[in-house]
Amino acid sequence: MLDLAGDAQGFETIVIDSIDWAEQLLRKHLERKLGKAVDEMPYGRGFGILAEQFGQLIAQADGLVAAGLNVLFVGHSEVKRCTPPDLDEGYDRYEVKLSKKVAPIVKEWADLILFCNYKTKLVEGADGRKKGRGKERVMYAERTAAWDAKNRYGLPGELPMGIDALSQCFAAPSLADTIAAHIASAGSVAQLGRYGDRIDQLVSEDKISGDEWSRLTDAIAARHQEIEPAKEVADA
Prior knowledge:
This protein is α+β, with helices and mostly antiparallel strands. It has a domain at 175-235. 43% of the residues lie in helices and 19% in strands. The protein has seven helices and eleven strands. The protein has a three-stranded antiparallel sheet with strand order 6-9-11, with no helix packed on it. Strand 7 and strand 8 form a beta hairpin.
């Protein structure tokens, strides 16, 4: 994945299918390296190490996002018992099929979590008993007691199962937004200077507007203030 961050090779979206199998591959690698099963290590230490290693995969995904790529994780679900502390009894709900310490990392990182399922309708049969029927596949973008979901794109709670429903999530960023992202991650004043020169050139070529120029130069000034104190401490 790091190679694609430097050269996307024409790709726009990277899909990891599935994230739970990726965790299992990482777990087997760690167990070979440590010579011990993750769940055999005392005090849950093995799962802590697994979560730390999985965090490196997420960091690589961040690198792809910073390079302008979309990153999509596909995961299986499983039914788990949930007992919230404010309720006397628990209930079953769908959870992503990841270990206890890895799942929160993925949920926090993602901008969008969709729960995909068949939409079930109860139909009364000839014997008077209710039966479940459903062939329509849908995506849910809002959390409920039955499943997890997350939505930072203003999507409706329920969507048809199709890429068209997610088109706004894959909209290409503007040139100014792309430059702003690079400014935010700049590591030196010299780098900011190069961005400033490039912005002036783009204005002269009418590729960005005057308002965008103002926004970007303000971002450069703010990032400059963030970098300089850190540089002074490092020199000291």
